[in-house]
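Co-fold these.
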Amino acid sequence: MLRQRTQTHRSPNDAGLRRQHERTDESLAVEAVNLVKDFGDTRAVDGVSLSVPTGSIYGLLGPNGAGKTTILRMLIGIIDPSSGTRRILGREHPLDAAQEVGYLPEERGLYPAMHARDAIAFMGALRGVPLAEGRRRADTLLQEHNLGDWARKPIRTLSKGMAQTVQLLGTILHRPRLIVLDEPFAGLDAINQGRLEELIRRETRAGATVIFSTHVIAHAERLCERVAIIAKGRVAFDGRVDEARSQLRPIVRLRTRASDGEWRSAIPAGARREGDEWVFELPDGGPEPLLKALIDGGAGIETLAIERPGLHDAFVAIAGDKAAAEMGQEQVQ
Amino acid sequence: MMRFLRSSFVIARRDFSATVLSKAFIFFLLGPLFPLLLGGVFGGIGARVATQAERPVVAVVSSESDFDRLSKARAQLAQALTDDAVVRLVYYAPEPDPAAQQKHLLASQSPPVRAVLTGGLDRPNLTGAVAGDAGTLGQLRLIVANARAPTEEAPASIMVTNVHNSSGSLAKERALTAQIGEMLLFFLTILLSGMLLSQLIEEKSNKIIEVIAAAVPIDALFVGKLFAMLAASVVGIVVWVSAGALLIQLVKQGGVSTLPPPALGWPAFLFLGVVYFAMNYLLLGAAFLTIGAQASTVREVQTMSMPVTFGQVLIFGFASTAIGNPDSGSALAAAIFPLSSPMVMLARAAEQPDWWPHLLAIAWQALWVALILHFGARLFRKTVLKSGPRTRWWKRKSVA
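Predicted complex below.
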């Protein structure tokens, strides 16, 4: 990537890099405490508290209507919370940090008559990059993303995927320290989703903090170090992905040669049959006592697999079957 | 503050470029020139036709010598009244049957004869449709009298000293200037500021509004848009005023210098005209931007346009009460009411020579521009950038 956020000697003209030395809080890029947002009689967000470590990839996971977009909009200052506080890159007022934040909204939008490079440069200019410098960087970014031939073409002539890439490049043109992406994978094909995942990883390697919302668990599972599971405007879980998984016990899948015997006493009461397999949660004692009881009881173990629960299982356990079903429907759509 | 100004500038630069560099802007510039041009051309033709049509033609049936004397007398009268203002005389030689000739001439279409003068200078006899046309009859009497006893003397020589104004002409001319200034301000504003109603539709329909709102204060977005459209409007006005001045220069003898002079003089009046146009535009524009920001579709904007235009006409009517009496109570009220203040104050600049009320008025109007913009930006943020189902303003309850 063309950018590095590490502290090295830079041109004094690079305002984005100069700002790095003004950091006040290195540990948390975003901190929200008890955010509430009411729209008329509807409470869209209800007491959300979040802590996003600097340099991490943080996912907001939840079905549509859970309040993810409203939370993101409050965090970056597009709307004000009805109550609660938030700090962005050490600033009380999010717009004070606007020049260090990049934001890709869920509903993508560009001026159709603008040329691709001008659209990117305009987005950079909004964040403090001089227009000429913005155009120069835009040309470089477009070249890097195989869109160099489209730099001087109007947005209206670009495909949807190209336009989304252009907007994403506009989001990172000013080399932000915090990148906020609202449903960034929506509308992208598998190839572009992969490219976007790589871009997010590259940005974090360069020192940026990335927050993104998604209702696709697989993206969060692949990318995020930390996730917040949002359901009905509340945070149902906030922590590392492995912590979310550890909310559930590992699942044991067992196939035996013997159909009955003393070994059956080692199978927990809640175990279920799936075909010729027993499926149950790993008992408290762990795998060793279980194995011993099965062997001693003459089970004749054919196969035994202990599976770590996925984020989807954790999501079902945390947010509930209904929310999981909604997520499933959205992913199908 | 610097960041706010820079953000406003970025928005304004984008909007100004998108507006002025579009093909549609050429039509925007040409649009008002067509009526101006057509008005000038057809007005000139119409005036000439009307003059020719209305100038009475009198057929003179007489000897050639009598007609020559009548023609000379007419020419002397035309020196005083201009040629167009004096009855036109056309010579016809006497025919054997005077009654038939007279009837034939009165029925003539080319030229359309109003009356026939027979009997020569000794016994002039006029026959025709001259009832109620005292002017034609009076002119003929003078022409015949002068033809009977022609004077060879040239008109008396009078020493003339021109002054810029006289008390008899000043008040009337300044009131005229005030009226023209106020009307120009009103029409330019109504034509140009209405565009602001739909200014945020583009951002809202393109969904780019969220990108902008996340990067710059909404106030900066409003200010940027307002000044971009003001700048585009000024480009248009410069073109139109230049074209108008050129047209006046071409069709009016003496050109623009013959226009009635305002009390503060032309340079100051034109300067204040620009300032008050800007204030009027910003005041109404800020209100329109706020109203238009609530609309989601072009149809909603169009629906809003009619009452907004009607409101402007009412404000113009209110402002018009100040013309001719700038110190009256209603004039003062119209000068204080922010939306009519620029028009009233421009009219005042035409009629009153004091500067200080203008400084006060400009500060007052600027304050209201800032207030309306701030209120509009707050309303926009509160109502537009939110998720979830849309609630109409009449159903909306206040949120703590």
